[in-house]
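2024-03-11 09:14:02 DEBUG pipeline.ingest accepted 1 chain
2024-03-11 09:14:02 DEBUG pipeline.ingest length=285
2024-03-11 09:14:03 DEBUG pipeline.predict start
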Amino acid sequence: MIKRLLIICFLLGCGLTASAQLSQPGAKEPGKNFWYGLTGRDSLSLTRVWEASLVVPGYAQAYNREYWKIPVVWAGIGGFLGSAVYHNAQYKKTGNGSDLQARNWSYAGMAAVYWGSVLEGVVSYRTGRDFVPSRATIYSAMLPGLGQIYNGDYWKLPIIYGGLLFMCYLVDFQSTQYNRYHTAYNLVSDDDPTTVDEFNGRLTENKLQYYRDNSRRSRDYAILYTVLVYVLNIVDANVFATLHDFDVSDDLSLRINPAIIPQANYAMQSRADNIALGLQVRWTF
């Protein structure tokens, strides 16, 4: 599972980087502006630095001129990867459960170092502005709720994590139910009278099939809703970060006052001083 997530993150980073390069009018050759960013000949946006660090761990640290962090990042990733390969080989030889657990923990450690290096690079990115909307978006993409903390919307954290935890609970519950009914259905439909399912014949083969399919459908919907909550968390952080400097005060007014308009050629103007009378509309929002 962890290996699949790493592959997905790598491909996503490659896709984002390539699309950003090709979609920018008059952009340099693909990859050249990333090299210019490292050499100090060009500046990159936070989004570009994040995209590059997804593909090449340590890129953000190099761009931020914090070179001493790069060996730490690669040593952490390489160390955990080597441990995972070693324990995986040992597990294939002996079948020992401790080697399997050590392998999984090694993959988790490698993913944590990779994730932490990307997030650290985003946090350390220097800019002349006090508030960067793209930072909130990336924060929430990497850790739900972190963008809301950056925006100062702390009250949204219980909503986000409550929704994610509830959806994860539904996924786990429906997965457990699906496995139960799937196993029971296989035992009932194997035409072997000696095999007995956990329901002891209380449910027919058709009912077990119905419950199995229903649980699988509910599990898939729960996964979809979990992804939806995650995406909404990113959208919320992006929207409210973009509107961070927008004036939302209650001073909404419309004032109409008489005014003197100079240098205008109206039929009602005074020929003596070349002025005209009119109305001035002032809208405050």
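2024-03-11 09:14:41 DEBUG pipeline.report The longest helix spans residues 205-242.
2024-03-11 09:14:41 DEBUG pipeline.predict end
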